[in-house]
Amino acid sequence: MAFLKKVNSKAKVATATGFGSNASSYGGRFVTKSGNANVRKSGIGFLESISWYHTMLNLPRWKFLTILVLFYFVMNCFFASLYYLNGVEHLKGVVMTTAVDKFGQAFFFSIQTFTTVGYGHISPSGFIASSIAAIEALFGLLSFAIATGLFYGRFSKPKAFLLFSDNAIVAPYKEGKALMMRITPFKNAHLTEVEAKITLGLQVEQNGTLVNTFYVLDLEMDKVNALNLSWTLVHPITETSPLFGFTSIDFKNNLGEIMVYIKAFDDMFSATVVKRTSYIFKEVVYGAKFLPMFSRSEDNTRTILHIDKLNAFEEVTV
Questions:
Q1: Would you say residue 274 has pLDDT above 90?
Q2: Contact yes or no for 187/161 (Cβ under 8 A)
Q3: Over residues 275-282, mean pLDDT
Q4: Which residues contact 81 (CB under 8 A, 6 or more apart)?
């Protein structure tokens, strides 16, 4: 893999990017496709390095629900085991049958206590059984309060419901060419005052040392009043661009990353939302143009936004 020895001197250098300049200390891309910093923390305990609240809010829906169900099942198995070890004879109403039936009845009594349902046909008898039931009831109330807070946090958390094209492209533009990527909203949210910023990170060889250098990529339009359809971000590759003079071979043989930052106001949440992603040079298609992704409805009364065409492009000559 080659490294750039120099970049267009007219390019605008970005400062205060939050990334270091020592390229030898970096591994992989700066930002993941999902927009998170590509950093793994070490030198600190695992539990200390994680905010469980943030983790639970950001988990995929299926993982979040799976964790809740597993927690509910495991905790009831734990308390059912305590009732069983203490002796199910201390649970009034339990029918003395097989060991499996006894544990099963202790398990469902645990569920009734944990959820504070309390049907009443089984009740604890004795100090130990009553103490276990009291502790479980308190634990159940606290657990459901936390679960309710997490559910509310996930539903009420402001999110930028935006999708990015899988690839950035270099396409013909006016009398030259431009770097382009496309975004679109995919939910029934209304985004206004949408701003875009793009930063290019390059590994450049300076005096025999490999350094990370960051450049501002000026956009043809960096702000729109409302984002209802798709928006193609266009960086004209002019003489002041750090990509000026780049060929398809340069994109293949050099290390670089294009980081995209989107900020918008969601009037439903009445809050500012943010979305990020990045494209490494291998994800840049040189010589292509995006295909239209919205069209007129058959009755000519609405515009149809084809989300499935977000990544559609065709090869062209630049």
A1: yes
A2: yes
A3: 93
A4: 103, 106
- Residue 188 DSSP one-character state: S
Per-residue confidence (pLDDT) for residue 68, from 0 to 100: 94
Q: Which two tokens stand for residue 141?
A: 């109330």
For 136-186, write each residue's pLDDT tens digit: 999 999 999 999 999 999 888 888 899 999 999 999 998 899 999 999 999
Beta strand spans in the chain (E) = 91-92, 123-124, 162-164, 168-173, 176-185, 191-206, 209-216, 223-227, 231-236, 256-266, 271-280, 284-286, 288-290, 294-296, 303-305, 313-315
Backbone dihedral region for residue 221 (phi beyond 0: left; psi -120 to 50: alpha; all else: beta): beta
Judge contact between 191 and 184, C-beta under 8 A.
no
Question: Which residue's entry shows tokens 């001197």?
Answer: 9
> What pLDDT was estimated at residue 23?
58
* DSSP string covering 205-270: EETTEEEEEEEE---S--EEEEESS-EEEEEE--TTSTTTT--HHHHHHB-EEEEEEEEEEETTTT
Residues 86-113 pLDDT 10s: 988 888 887 767 888 888 889 998 999 9
What pTM value is reported for the model? Answer: 0.80
Average pLDDT, the chain: 87
Res. 263: pLDDT tops 90: yes
- Number of Cβ within 10 Å of residue 95's Cβ equals 9
Q: 205 near 5, Cβ under 8 Å?
A: yes
User: Token pair of 93, please?
Assistant: 């109403």
Structural tokens at position 51 = 């905010």
- Backbone φ and ψ for 51, nearest 5 degrees, come out as -95, 110
- Measured CA distances, 300 to 224, 229, 308 (Å): 25, 17, 21
CA–CA distance, 82 with 162 (Å, rounded to integer): 49
Q: What is the pLDDT of residue 250?
A: 85
